[in-house]
Structures are given as C-alpha cells and as structure tokens.
Write a structure and sequence with these properties.
Blueprint lengths: L7 E5 L2 H4 L25 E7 L4 E7 L12 E2 L15 H15 L3 E5 L2 H4 L10 H16 L3 E7 L5 H7 L6 H17 L5 E5 L9 H5 L6 H25 L4 E7 L3 E3 L4 H21 L6 H10 L7 H9 L4 E5 L4 E3 L35 H13 L3 E5 L16 H19 L5 E7 L19 E3 L11 E3 L1 H11 L6
Parallel strand pairs: 1-5, 1-13, 5-6, 6-7, 7-8, 8-10, 9-11, 10-12, 12-13
Antiparallel strand pairs: 2-3, 2-4, 14-15
Helix pairs in contact: 2-4, 6-8, 8-11, 12-13
Bound molecules: 6-O-phosphono-beta-D-glucopyranose.
6-O-phosphono-beta-D-glucopyranose (BG6) binds next to loops.
C-alpha cells in the first residue's frame, strides 16, 4: 500500500508570519509584534523601552544562546524599527484569494494558527473580542466551501504581549487558566468546522528560544523548566476540554524533530547524540507519552530545579496525553564532541557540523533524502500513535523571471522528502495522517524575519523592507504539487 486514500495533503502557515493586520479589529499586541527583522548573519531583536528613563533599546534573540533583557524594561513597538509581523503577507485581507489558490492545488487540509491576541487582546481579558472571532468564522467558512479540512494551532510562536510583561510569560501558572479560557472559546465556536487541533507549535523550542516559545523574559533554567511544565499541563487540559466539547475532535502535539547523526564512531559522540535526542524527545515523552521520563528528573535533580506543581498535574498528563503526534522536520543535523567548527544550521538554530553527503541552501539547511523515513520510524516506534508531518520544506531566495518562478530546486527537495515518507508507509508501515508543506504561500521567516527566505508554492510580491504590491504569483512548484495531490502521491 502507498498513501492511504484519505491521506491529508496540504500546506501550513502561522498567523504571526502570514496574517498581518496587527492592530486591526481589536487585536492586541503579541510577543512577535515587537520582533524586528534580521538575516542569516544578524539576529532578530526584541525592542523595549525603559519607562523609568524613557531609554529605548533592543535585545537580540539568538536561538540556543543567552537572552538577557535589562532588568525592568518593557517590550514595546518603537517608531524607527521595522516589524515584519505587522503586515506580513496580509492573509487577513487576502484570505479568499489565498484559499482559492490552495483549493486550485487540491489541498485536502490547511494548517493555520489562530492569533491568540486577536481573540483575547491582553490574554487575561474576561471576554473575547467578537471581531477577532468573526475573522476566523469567515476563514473556516471559506475552507468549508472548498472542502478543505482545517488543522488549527492554538499558539504558534506568539503569546499576548501583556502576559509576557505582567506575568513573565509561561513561567506563571496563571497562563494555564488563560490558555484554557482562550481554547474553550475557540473550540466551542469552531468545533463544527474544525476537527484537528494542535496546542503549542514546536513545544521543544522552549529549550532554545523561550521568548519565542512562551514569552519568557527571564529564561533561567528553572524558569524554562517551569514554563515547559505549564505548557504541558495546559495542553492536557485542552485535550480534556476538547473531548468534552466534541468527541470527534483530535488534539495533537507539535514537536520540532530532526534526525541527529554522529560525525564520528567515537562512543563519546554516540552519548552526545543520545543526550541531544533526550533533550528533544523529553517533550514528546511527556505530551504524547503522558509521563515525565526519568532522565529529565535526574537532570532537574542535578541542576537543583524544583517545579511548582501538584499531584493532579501528573494525573492529567497521564490521562489526557495527545491524540496524535505532529512534527516539523526540515532535515537532519550532525554533531561531534571533536574539534570541528559548526558550519551548518538547521531548524531551531541547532548549529551542527557540515554533512559531506548533503547539499544545503543559502541558510545552511541540509536536504536529507532519508530524514522523513528516519523521523517517522523513530517516533512511531517510541509512541505508536498516529503521526502527522505538519512542516517540511525549503527556504530559497526565489527570483522572479518574466513574471515566473522556476523553482526546480524546491521540487527536487520535495520529491526526495515525499519519497522518504512514502518509504516509511510502504516499507515500515507507520501510521501517517497527512503532510502539510511549510509556508505554502510565501510568508515571513520565523528565524530571520526575512521575506527573501521563501518556502511557498505561491510567490508574494513583498521584500525585506516592506515594499511590494502583495500580488500572488503561482510558482512552477504550484503546478507540480497539484499533480502530486491529484494522483495521491503515486507519481511525483
Ligand atoms: C519552524 C517554525 O521552526 O520552522 C516555523 O514552526 C518556521 O514558524 C519554520 O517558519 C521555518 O523556519 P524559518 O526560520 O526558515 O522561517
């Protein structure tokens, strides 16, 4: 058997990278709205103001490195900075056109995120913002018109900024209640049209970029552990409430996963790989497996980390683990303990050694033709729960030639990846629900804030300075993907 008949082919986006309209119809500010643009060599920055002195400044967000905001400053939008999320590629005003393009490609599913601050502008409001809710009503109705199934992420790299300023982000247990309130409102409202939900995008980003993953302003190891714990409990509570609202609903986890290779056969390198795997899989061991693994308790013991928790937390984690495990996978990474300079980067800023067998793009991300099969087998063997590839794709500085984009490099990457996931189904029998290519219509890069790092099947006329008409232009890959969906992956 190849791809099952009901296999969900489609694409994925996130509100803060795609929607724009950052203050329209009552939306509040998100943590992503005070993030400037950057590049492959320059980090994005959080801008802030010191209300005591009126001093303005910024703090770089370097994935996997220290994030140190000066004490007492408040993240804020500054007049002379450029924030890509404010307009992004303006799905807010183009949703009909964009969904029509998705339908033309034959999408069975579209993964999008709801912008929390559009629904609860401050995060801790008592009542939701009706205009925000109406926007997603229109989006889901439009998808229904074309028979496209929505897959909705409740929190994709954004937290209402007020929750960050007032409570320090996800380190405070109060956020569990605010997230539960928000989730209940949207699941109640949309459950007739939305069957598949995800709680936190790439929840393991809490290890590398706690500001992005949870609005954490002071990311000590203790605070990171607490913020992750609070998100786990919040996720389990959402599984519980969603099942109560509608038995048909499935709530998944979303993990950033990449196969990790050792550069040498030195046993010390294998231990390093084992530990890096533990770091990544800790998040799915809890959220999908339902239980904290011993290796993490031992680490907390060594580091003197003590969680603010209760016995009920662990009961709810065990009882309401995720219904399925979704994940992003862009490629693999190579590591060694030996002297070797890090040359490649990958998803979540994991800086590894260059793999001599693989080609990379301009941002150092490698195309690995076996990575999805390895990822799918690793996760299937460990949890035996249905899987879903919700992000995969390649960023490229596409060039418009005579009004067209000839992106054969993208097609080459996707062919290799589709073959790899097909092998996992055909040769290994993994249970895979679907595949949503990342950034199906061009959007802002999360890591760099650039427009020029494009993933889409559809080009959008917009540059890194915010110029452009926002016109949509299908690329060559658009027509290729349409055929793949048409023949359900039997040819690609
Ligand atoms: C994932 C995120 O980490 O990778 C997306 O969930 C992101 O939001 C994607 O856009 C690709 O990364 P980047 O940095 O190239 O945008």
């Amino acid at each position: 058997m190849s791809f099952p008949d009901n296999f969900l082919w489609g694409g994925a986006t996130a509100a803060n990278q795609y929607e724009g309209a950052y203050l329209e119809d009552g939306k509040g500010l998100n943590t992503s709205d005070v993030l400037t643009n950057g590049s492959h060599t320059e980090a994005r920055k959080v801008t802030w103001i010191d209300k005591r002195t009126n001093e303005k400044g910024y703090t770089p967000v370097l994935w996997g490195e220290k994030f140190e905001m000066p004490e007492g400053v408040t993240p804020a939008v500054l007049d002379d900075a450029y924030y890509p999320s404010h307009t992004a590629t303006d799905f807010y005003h183009h949703y009909k056109e964009d969904i029509a393009l998705m339908a033309e490609m034959g999408f069975k599913v579209y993964r999008l995120s709801i912008n929390w601050a559009r629904i609860f502008p401050n995060g801790d409001d008592e009542q939701p913002n009706e205009l925000g809710l109406e926007f997603y009503d229109k989006v889901f109705d439009e998808l229904k018109k074309y028979g496209i199934e929505p897959l909705v992420t409740l929190s994709h790299y954004e937290t209402p900024l007020n929750l960050s300023i007032k409570y320090g982000g996800w380190i405070d247990r109060k956020l569990i209640n605010y997230f539960e309130r928000y989730s209940k409102v949207v699941i109640d409202r949309y459950h007739d049209r939305v069957k598949y939900w995800l709680t936190f995008n790439e929840i393991n980003a809490m290890d590398l970029a706690p500001y992005i993953a949870g609005g954490v302003l002071n990311p000590t190891p203790q605070n990171r552990a607490q913020a992750a714990h609070n998100q786990f409990v919040a996720s389990a509570k959402v599984v519980k409430l969603a099942h109560k609202i509608d038995k048909e609903i499935k709530v998944g986890q979303m993990l950033a996963f990449q196969p990790l290779y050792s550069y040498t056969c030195d046993p010390v390198d294998q231990v390093k790989i084992m530990e890096l795997n533990q770091k990544m899989l800790f998040y799915s061991d809890v959220q999908t497996g339902g239980k904290y693994p011993e290796y993490r308790w031992k680490q907390y013991e060594r580091e003197g980390i003590i969680l603010e928790d209760s016995p009920e937390d662990y009961e709810i984690l065990a009882k309401y683990s995720a219904d399925f495990l979704s994940f992003s996978c862009y490629g693999s990474s190579v590591f060694t303990t030996h002297q070797k300079e890090a040359e490649n980067s990958g998803n979540l800023g994991a800086n590894g050694v260059k793999n001599p067998y693989l080609e990379t793009n301009a941002w150092g991300w490698a195309t690995d033709p076996e990575c999805l099969r390895i990822a799918l087998n690793t996760l299937w063997d460990r949890y035996h729960k249905p899987l879903w590839i919700v992000e995969n794709g390649i960023g490229w500085a596409d060039v418009l030639e005579d009004g067209k984009i000839h992106d054969d490099y993208r097609v080459k990457y996707l062919k290799a990846n589709i073959k790899s996931m097909k092998d996992a189904i055909e040769l290994d029998g993994v249970d895979l629900l679907g595949y949503t290519m990342w950034g199906c219509i061009d959007l802002v890069s999360a890591g760099t804030g650039e427009m020029r790092k494009r993933y889409g099947f559809v080009y959008i006329d917009r540059d890194d300075q915010g110029n452009g008409t926002l016109k949509r232009i299908p690329k060559d890959s658009f027509y290729w993907y349409k055929k793949v969906i048409q023949n359900n992956g039997s040819e690609f």
